[in-house]
Amino acid sequence: MRLFVALSPPQEALAEVAGAVELHVEGWPELRWAAPETWHLTLAFLGEVPETALPGLKTRLARAAGRYPPMTLAFRGAGAFPSARRARVVWLGVEGGDAVLSRLAASVAAAGRRAGAPYEDKKPYHPHLTLARARPKEGLDVTPLVGELKEFAGTPWRADAVHLMRSHLGRKVRYETVACWPLAGRD
Ligand code: 2AM
Predict the structure, then answer these.
(1) Which CATH number applies to 2-182?
(2) Per its UniProt entry, which superkingdom is the organism in (predicted)?
């Protein structure tokens, strides 16, 4: 099964984002916008994981989550991968969490590897909320869109749990929570 590990922002925080994004959807027909009900903050993508690896993975993720404290995060700023001029992905930035967020991301990625997950992301961790993907293969110049989205500054929210998510690919991608563990470490 295709798995990733993520934080799941509360509905209020996502509703704010939806309000800001709505204004731009019609103006950018060459972007495929992610449905708000699929929005999440990926900590680590694990790839295709065999069912037999699941019990070990869950044990390791529970342990990792237990070592880190809850964090206060906020959606703030925006950007595009690989660049605003040739964007494949348009995203909203995440502020807060400082070192804890990237250490948590590294820990859950390591938990995945040790449990036998095949995918290893070589890129440095860059927390983001994917809003849209470009239809053209060569990417799209989204500089004005990113310029406007950069103004976005959401209300801070509490990240207090780690979610193991399964992704069902298809014409309409669907994500399902397989398991969830509280961030139970001390500040
Ligand atoms: P993205 O938000 O930048 O698209 C489920 O696919 C989640 O895992 C998405 O949030 C996606 O990131 C992330 N992810 C990271 N690396 C991936 C990869 N190689 N293939 C698919 N998804 C990946």
Answers:
(1) 3.90.1140.10
(2) Bacteria
